[in-house]
Write a structure and sequence with these properties.
about 100 residues, mainly alpha, Non-ribosomal Peptide Synthetase Peptidyl Carrier Protein, Chain A, globular
C-alpha cells in the first residue's frame, strides 16, 4: 500500500484500523473510504486520529486530518508526517554537531 512506511509501521496502522473500525483486514484497501465504505462516524474518526497520534508520537494537524477520506489518504498522511519529523530530527542533530 505504501513504500515509505516500514513494515512494522504499516502493520501497526492496519492493526489500529482493524481494531477501531471492527472490519476485516481485507477491507482496508487504499481506495476504501473510511466513513462511507468502512462505517466510521465522526467519533470513530476522532478516535482513529488520536490512536495514530499516540502510536506514532506525532500530531496530525486539523488541516491534514480534514483531507483524509480513504485508507490510502491516512497512510499517505502518516508517511508524510513521519518524513517531516525525520527531517526535523536530522536537522536538529546537525545543528548540535
Amino acid at each position: 500500500m505504501n513504500n515509505i512506511l516500514s513494515d512494522k509501521d504499516t502493520q501497526a496502522l492496519f492493526d489500529l484500523l482493524v481494531e477501531q473500525l471492527g472490519v476485516p483486514r481485507e477491507q482496508l484497501t487504499p481506495e476504501a473510504r473510511i466513513q462511507e465504505d468502512l462505517g466510521a462516524d465522526s467519533l470513530t474518526i476522532m478516535e482513529i486520529t488520536m490512536a495514530v497520534e499516540e502510536r506514532f508520537d506525532l500530531v496530525i494537524p486539523d488541516e491534514e486530518s480534514e483531507q483524509i477520506s480513504t485508507v490510502g489518504d491516512l497512510f499517505g498522511t502518516l508517511a508524510k508526517l513521519l518524513v517531516i519529523r525525520s527531517r526535523e530530527s536530522a536537522g536538529a542533530i546537525k545543528q548540535r554537531i
